[in-house]
Write a structure and sequence with these properties.
The protein is an alpha/beta fold and about 325 residues long. The protein folds into two domains: about 120 residues, 3-Layer(aba) Sandwich (Rossmann fold); about 180 residues, NAD(P)-binding Rossmann-like Domain (Rossmann fold, 3-Layer(aba) Sandwich). It is built from eleven helices and twelve strands. It has a seven-stranded parallel sheet, sandwiched between helices. The protein has a five-stranded parallel sheet with strand order 2-1-3-4-5. Helix 1 crosses helix 11 and helix 4 crosses helix 6. It is elongated.
Length: about 325
């Protein structure tokens, strides 16, 4: 097969270095574009049928139309989720969309870290120490082995979380449509009633939007914690804030948030933030917010770039061999 060209958009320096390092082994020539994919730069490299995009920027219908006019036939997103792409528009215009799988350990490790930070009141401990206030917190923390953890979504990442939780000796419950993990599977309502920590590991779609809403929060144990490293839209954030304010929940640790796009991944220190959910949550001593960073490891970088290249190669081969 001839050398294949791939146009890579929204490419940061470490990604660019990895593409340049791995591409020769696969016989691929990457065209690295640092900026986000837009209508105006959709045809920067004529003749490249395959492009790659990151998950930090949206790919709306207007951009997909420009891609079609430029002869693009395949979009590989460097992410597991693809809710940032107008999939319906791509299908109507005959452009295929592929995603990548990467090491589930990245998000699983981070999830465990967030659990520990939440149940050990780490936000108040660290902030007090930074002010040279070294008194012990008046509320004693909890140990994971004394708690029940409910895992909603037992796919690759959810199963990796369950595997790690075994070492802490806690009781693990799981809810998923596909019962595969080594855990006690229960209906979601039972999981919510019995869990001291609920952690979310589902993709976003019409069925999972606000899977944790006002009704589900009411069913949770008094003082329970929520951890979300999945998608911000899995949780009704307005209802979550109310449950935190009225003391129903003991705390939350969130790596993803509704309305995060345009805020996370950008330096907003010198400009006002208009996401009221974020501002309210940041003001709470029992809430930890991090900027969608659970996946951000060296292993994931390599996995993501390598899978992007093989996705494009497989698509090109499908055009040749059917």
């Amino acid at each position: 097969m001839k050398n294949i060209g791939i146009t890579v958009y929204g490419c940061e320096q470490d990604e660019a270095n990895m593409f340049r390092s791995l591409s020769p082994r696969f016989g691929v020539t990457p065209a690295i574009i640092g900026g986000a994919l837009t209508e105006s730069n959709a045809a920067l490299v004529p003749g490249n049928q395959c492009i790659s995009v990151g998950h930090k920027y949206e790919v709306p219908r207007s951009v997909i139309f420009s891609l079609k006019n430029a002869g693009v036939k395949y979009i590989s997103t460097r992410s597991v989720g693809y809710d940032h792409i107008d999939i319906g528009a791509a299908e109507r215009m005959g452009i295929a969309v592929g995603n990548v799988e990467y090491s589930p350990g990245s998000v699983a490790d981070y999830t465990i870290m967030l659990m520990l930070l939440a149940v050990r009141n780490a936000k108040t401990v660290v902030s007090s120490a930074e002010r040279n206030d070294f008194r012990l917190n008046s509320i004693r923390a909890k140990e994971l082995r004394d708690m029940t953890v409910g895992v909603i979504g037992a796919g690759r990442i959810g199963r990796a979380v369950i595997e790690r939780l075994r070492g802490f000796g806690c009781h693990v419950l799981a809810y998923d449509r596909n019962w595969e993990a080594a855990a006690e599977y229960v209906p979601i309502d039972e999981l919510l009633r019995k869990s001291d920590i609920v952690t979310l590991h589902l993709p976003f779609n019409a069925d999972t939007r606000h899977i944790i809403g006002r009704g589900q929060l009411r069913k949770m144990k008094q003082g329970a914690f929520i951890v979300n490293t999945g998608r911000g839209t899995l949780v009704d954030t307005g209802a979550l804030i109310k449950a935190l304010r009225n003391g129903k929940l003991g705390g939350a640790a969130l790596d993803v948030l509704e309305g995060e796009r345009g805020i996370f991944y950008f330096d907003c220190s010198q400009k006002p933030i208009d996401n009221q959910f974020l501002l309210q949550l940041q003001s709470m001593p029992n809430v930890i917010i991090t900027p969608h960073t659970a996946y951000h490891t060296e292993r994931v970088l390599r996995d993501t770039v390598e899978k992007t290249i093989t996705n494009c190669l497989d698509f090109e081969r499908s055009l040749i061999y059917g």
